[in-house]
Specification:
Layout (H helix, E strand, L loop, with lengths): L4 E5 L2 E4 L2 E2 L12 E2 L2 E4 L3 E4 L7 H11 L6 E5 L5 H4 L2 H7 L4 E5 L3 H5 L2 H11 L16 E4 L4 E3 L4 E6 L8 E5 L4 E3 L24 H13 L4 E3 L6 E2 L2 H24 L4 H15 L1 H5 L2 H8 L2 H10 L26
Parallel strand pairs: 6-7, 7-8, 8-9, 13-14
Antiparallel strand pairs: 1-2, 2-5, 3-4, 5-6, 10-11, 11-12, 12-13, 14-15
Bound molecules: zinc ion (ZN).
Zinc ion binds next to loops.
Length: 331
């Protein structure tokens, strides 16, 4: 069945939401997302999504009337597996297309063993049924920010955007002033605040703040993402509140860790903060699930930043029951 297709803005199509296979109710990744097709004289796929979504997505592309020989680039904002595993199918289906990957992620795309393992660690073995297969090196374009992909009639600019993941970037569309920011910040179409996931496998506060400043400097007219509403027309509001919340999360965790509070109590304080600023209504249930696990990635970051801090008692890797996190030096 051809998926639902929305022309969000001029020549910018969201195809979906397309159901993903194997996500459980209350699970930790989105059960349905909408990969994008961006059409100029040439075309690009943005946020290709999961392996199981590739075939319905290509049906949507055919329905729009864009032939595969027009698609030059496949551009996930980052390599977290629910954003990227469709690559394997799409690169086979479109033999001349190249995938655009952050320079910090190229080695992981060529040899994804660690990337796959870190997703199992973040989501838990029961939650992660995804696997990126090695991407041939000659199909990859490595970027670091500042690169421009000219589609004819519109350009896509890459903005270095670490924080959520080291290999995350934003994508700015010159025709619509639309900006894809990946998972950072998160929002629904009617959100009053920009949300921040502080529990991916890795998280970095200073780089996150720098990324938000860079997004603001683009002066986008709309923020785009592939789930939960697709477009938000008050980028400045989302960026400013995301900055406020990121600093508040850091402060709450540092205070809790200094007092040697167990992870459960710190999670409760984070929850109280989110309630107090209206973040939970603004973003929906997904944020609540995260807190049950404790923001392990933020704890890891803080331990590296402040050597006197320790992992709070009871911080849990999702899917691994009560096993306690140890200090990690993973990059
Ligand atoms: Zn992510």
């Amino acid at each position: 069945m051809v998926p639902y297709i929305v022309q969000v803005l001029n020549g910018l199509y969201a195809i979906g939401p397309i159901q993903t296979v194997g996500t459980s109710a209350g699970g930790l990744r989105e059960s349905a997302t909408s990969p994008f097709l961006v059409v100029g004289e040439r075309a690009a796929i943005v946020e290709p999504g999961e392996h199981s979504q590739a075939a319905p997505f290509l049906e949507g592309v055919a329905e729009i009337g864009v032939t595969l020989d027009r698609i030059d680039y496949i551009i996930p904002t980052h390599l977290h597996l629910h954003h990227s595993t469709a690559l394997n199918v799409l690169l086979d289906a479109i033999p001349h297309a190249k995938v655009v990957v952050h320079a910090r992620g190229v080695a992981h795309a060529i040899e994804p063993t660690r990337l796959n393992a870190s997703s199992v660690q973040a989501w838990g073995p029961g939650e992660c049924n995804l696997n990126l297969n090695p991407v041939p090196e000659d199909r990859i374009i490595g970027v670091a920010g500042g690169e421009v992909f000219d589609l004819g009639g519109r350009k896509l600019e890459i903005i270095d955007a670490p924080g959520h993941a080291p290999h995350n970037f934003g994508i700015y569309d010159t025709l619509t002033k639309g900006l894809w920011c990946g998972d950072f910040p998160q929002f629904q179409s009617n959100s009053k605040r920009g949300g921040i996931s502080i529990n991916p496998p890795l998280f970095h506060v200073e780089r996150g703040l720098e990324t938000l400043r860079r997004f603001r400097a683009c002066n986008p007219a709309v923020l785009l993402k592939w789930y939960g509403g697709i477009a938000h027309y008050q980028p400045e509001l989302l960026i400013r509140t995301a900055e406020e919340d990121l600093l508040a999360f850091e402060r709450i965790c540092v205070e809790g860790m200094r007092q040697k509070l167990p992870a459960k109590e710190i999670a409760l304080k984070l929850e109280e903060y989110k309630q107090s600023v209206g973040l939970i209504e603004s973003l929906g249930q997904e944020v609540v699930q995260e807190d049950v696990r404790g923001p392990v990635a933020l704890y890891r970051y803080l331990i590296q930043k402040y050597p006197d801090l320790e992992m709070p008692e009871g911080a849990i890797i999702p899917g691994r029951g009560e096993r306690e996190m140890r200090r990690s030096s993973a990059d």
